[in-house]
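Hi Y.,

Following your request, here is the sequence exactly as I used it, all 174 residues.
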Amino acid sequence: KMPVRMSLIMKELVLNREDLRSSLQLLRKDYEIFGPKLQPGGGRLSDTDVTDYAPLEDFDELCWDYKTTFSPKEFFLPVTEELMIFDGNSVAPSHPSTTPRALFLRPCDTHALKRMDAHFLKGLKDTNYEMRRANTILFVMECTQSWDSCFCKTMGTETPHEPDLLIRKLDEEK
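Below is the corresponding structure, written out as C-alpha cells. Let me know if you'd prefer a different format.
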C-alpha cells in the first residue's frame, strides 16, 4: 500500500491507498471524477499507449508515472460543443451539464487554467466555460519528477495555483 498525503486549507492528512479509494467512492456519489489515465493502445499508432484525461472509476486508474499527452483544456473547452438549440421557430442557448466534477491534474496545468480564466471569465464571459469551472473541484497531483519535455521549473509553474486539494504520493508507509 502506498500512502498519499493530502493538504487541505493548511491541514495535512495522510491516507493510505484504501482510505483514499474509499474517499473517492464517496465522492463519486455526487461528482464525476476525471484524471490522467493510461489508455493502452490509445496512441496514434496501434501499439502505443497514451495518458489522457478520462473518467476514473477507481483510484488505481490514476496515472502518476507518465505525463499526459494533452492538457486538460478540453475538459473546460471541448473541441465540439452545442452552443444553440434550434427548434424551427426559435433559438435558445444550450448549457453544459451542471453535474459537479472533480479533476486530478498537475501543478503546471493550474497555471494554464489561471490564464484561461483571465481570458474567458473577464469582460465578455464565456458562460459555458464559467459553468464548467464553477462546477469543478481541482485535485492537484504533486509531481515527483520532471519529464524530459517539462518546462515547469523554468516557467515557475511547479507550484500549483490555487488548488482545492493538493495530493502528494509518498514512497513509504507511515
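Residues 82 and 138 are 25 Å apart (CA to CA).

Thanks again,
Q.
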